[in-house]
Structure formats: structure tokens, C-alpha cells
């Protein structure tokens, strides 16, 4: 196979997924001035904007701060994977940055996982999903006997089989405080998978595994927030994760088999080199937003006819949320009674937050939002050279053909 290089990029430009903003908005303007870049940033309520001048090397330093490249190691001079490596980058639009990226090799099954996660209303949900989703996918792909082996190791206190080998930028991190909670939820999931499977050997459906992993993680995020935690820090963390949100676009590459699972409006684009050497872009995901007629129809069918005009207003879910599928965002999933009960019994920081107390308008028949992904399959061909995964910020500022051409020329 010649389709050996996979490019995973996650740039982000200023674009709020949520119309409702409880804090002052910021406006950013960038313009070239002679050999300098003029950077102007002013708060909505500031009387005069502040101006900073950046040299080209300083601009390059900002652009390169989150760059990360990984090359898959060869064995005996041969590359055992259909992926040669990947490059990724993030460009902050918020402080702290709200998007995340993840890459890992599956150790107990074949294949590599790569994903981008675009957060909104904070970074808590995108951080949690970037840490946890690949474990849920890996567990969903494991055969029954391996799940039993892992469970027996936990029971007897023996060392666990490693499931994933992570490939992370030094700035990427895991939440140590929540690791035990996350592990216990994951263990409950694999215990249920063991009980569901009688031990009969059967081929695992990758599409089904991806869908189950996405839905189960979102369910666990919701449940953890409802149950709470005696530890005040953890209790506030699980609530912040649940009340913020994140979209996810994940690729699973195993030999010539490429699956893309997408929830939200990030996008996967395949770079194809034609016989004449030119580049063409093949879209491997669908945006879940108001520009997708099938998504609009799905939403309307899931709610009463008298909500047809209110379920999507001004191209946003209930007039507020741009993506129609996302993790977290329990404000669009829980009943009003459940939201009030959790907020009232939660910490003061949650109760004092105007966003968490805000009930969306025309909120009659929740849930309005789902984390269920749409899964696309593509059998890789020699002319398929690379895959680009990116949040909506890239696709809103660059045409897909330009993205593929630029990456193709870089490679």
C-alpha cells in the first residue's frame, strides 16, 4: 500500500459553538504591517483597544508551539502499519484552549486511533473525552477472552495488559485526580460486555464498536455528574465535564480498513493523488449542523410537530448550539427537574454560574442532543495518501481542496 502517511491536524479559529455567552466577548484582529504583524485585542467594554506588535519569528513561535509529529517505527526495515506517521497542531483561540487531540496505537487489537475534540462552554468535556474515548473504543474492540483476562488481573491485583500506547505532545495531559473514577466506569463497561458475551468467538463489528463506545462514554459522563462524588474537587470536575460539551471526529485505521466516527461538525478529509499528480479531496464525514438536511429532518422527527419551528432557530439547536451532536451538554439532554436538582445540590461554583442555571427556550421534550456518531467506512487504495482530521475552524476558513493541496505539497 502507498497510503502510508496520515496527517491529523486540529487547528482552531475564533468561533463560538454557543450563542449564549455569560462573560464579556473578545474580538481579535490580525493585519500585516510592513514587516510586522499588528495584533489588536480589545474587550467589548474596554474604552481603548490594546495593540501589540509581533515579529515574524514570534508569529512562527506561536504557530509552532503545539506542533507534534510521530513516525510509526519500522521492524526489520518494514512498516507493519498502513500508517507511516502523523503530524498535528493546535492554534488557540481561547484561553485556555478548548479543543483537544489524541493519537494512540491499539496494543491488544490491530490498528491506530486518531481524533480531534472541539470543546465549547469550557474545556472540561473535550479534555475528558480526549482522555477516555479511546479506552472505550479499545475495550469495545477486544475479544471476550481478552476482556476476561483483564478482569481477572484486576480481581487478583496483577498487572493489567496494556491496551493503548499513547502518542502525545508534552502539553497534552491526563487528569490524575479523576483517573480512579474514570477507570471504575470503564471497568463497569467491560464487565457488562463480558456478561453480554457468552464467550462464543465472533468477529467484532468495528462500526458497532465505535457507536457503542461513543454512546457509553457520554452516558457515563451524564451518570457521574448525577451521582456526584464525596471529593469536592472531583464532584465539581464531573459537573463541569457534563455541563460543557465537545464534538469528536475519530479515525480507526487497520490495514486497508479506515473507519471514521464523527459526532458534531469537525471533519475528516481524505487526500487522493490522481494519475496526473494532482490532488483531490474526498469527504469521509458529514457535518451535524443546520447545513445538513438529513440532520434537520432527524431532529424534527424526534420531537412533536408543534416543535418543528423551535427545535432549530437561526441555524442553532434551540437557537443556541451550533452542532446537533455532541458529548456532554446535559443542558440539552436532561429534564428541567434533573438539571435543577443537580445544580441545587451541587457546589456553590455551579449554582452561581449563570450558564448552568440557564434553561434553553422551548425546552419541552429532551433530549435534544445525542453523542451517537455517524460512522463512515473506506477501503484504502494506493492513491489514498493521507487523511486530515480538523475542527470546524479550519473548514470555515479554507476550502477542502486547498487543504488537501497544501498538505499534499508539504508531504
Automatic annotation (TrEMBL):
Listed Pfam families:
PP2C
Q: Tell me the enzyme class.
A: hydrolase
The catalytic activity, as recorded, is: O-phospho-L-seryl-[pyruvate dehydrogenase E1 alpha subunit] + H2O = L-seryl-[pyruvate dehydrogenase E1 alpha subunit] + phosphate
Q: Does the keyword Magnesium apply?
A: yes
Q: Which InterPro entries match?
A: PP2C (IPR015655), PP2C_BS (IPR000222), PPM-type-like_dom_sf (IPR036457), PPM-type_phosphatase-like_dom (IPR001932)
Q: Name one GO cellular component term.
A: mitochondrion
**Which part of the chain is the PPM-type phosphatase domain?**
83-411
Query: Example GO molecular function term?
Result: metal ion binding
Cofactor(s) this protein requires: Mg(2+); Mn(2+)
Q: What are the record keywords, sorted?
A: Acetylation, Calcium, Hydrolase, Magnesium, Manganese, Metal-binding, Mitochondrion, Protein phosphatase, Pyruvate, Transit peptide
PANTHER family named in the record: [PYRUVATE DEHYDROGENASE [ACETYL-TRANSFERRING]]-PHOSPHATASE 1, MITOCHONDRIAL, PROTEIN PHOSPHATASE 2C
Stated name of the protein: [Pyruvate dehydrogenase [acetyl-transferring]]-phosphatase 1, mitochondrial
Question: Gene of origin?
Answer: PDP1
